[in-house]
UniProtKB/TrEMBL annotation:
Ranges of residues in domain COMM: 79-153
Organism: Larinioides sclopetarius
Pfam families attached to this UniProt entry: COMM_domain, COMMD9_HN
Name listed for the protein in its UniProt record: COMM domain-containing protein
Origin: domain of life: Eukaryota
Length: 155
């Protein structure tokens, strides 16, 4: 006899319970509620006290393990691990022998966390060539991003 039948609840109610508990655990992990008081305060006042205490204790005990598993399994964007740059001077030949155009060469090493540890594709090298105008545009955009992040961090 299934446990749900023995307890007098149907499968649909059991499924709803597990979904709700899963959503609650995701909320707790995402917001970093790792203390007993922090977790127990998330339950409604009319929630069964003994069940609230039991669930809060279990979540506090397992929080570190669940948090690391959630971080390991989460989808993440590639991350810049190394970069190098140099300035090259392109020299024209032929009729315009005196023309020169500086360019910036960026060498980026990118870590892709979605690729398995032992895969050769885990790290990707990317070379980007930028003219002075494109480099100025990129630096201006990065400066605006920095300012926005600073403004958000101050709030």
């Amino acid at each position: 006899m299934p446990v749900a039948d023995a307890m007098g609840i149907d499968s649909l109610e059991t499924l709803k319970l597990f979904k709700a508990l899963g959503m609650f655990l995701k909320f707790v992990l995402f917001h970093g509620h790792s203390t007993y008081d922090g977790i127990s305060s998330l339950f409604p006042d009319e929630f069964h006290k003994n069940l609230r205490d039991l669930l809060s204790k279990i979540i506090v005990e397992k929080f570190g393990t669940w948090k690391s598993l959630a971080a390991k399994d989460s989808v993440s964007v590639p991350k810049l691990t190394e970069f190098d740059w140099r300035v090259d001077l392109k020299m024209a030949s032929g009729k315009i022998a005196r023309m020169s155009e500086p360019t910036c060469i960026l060498h980026l090493k990118i870590h892709n966390p979605g690729v398995p540890e032992n895969s050769e594709d885990r790290f990707q090298s990317l070379n980007v060539e930028l003219s002075k105008e494109k480099l100025d545009t990129m630096l201006n955009g990065l400066g605006r991003i920095r300012d926005q992040l600073s403004a958000v961090a101050k709030k």
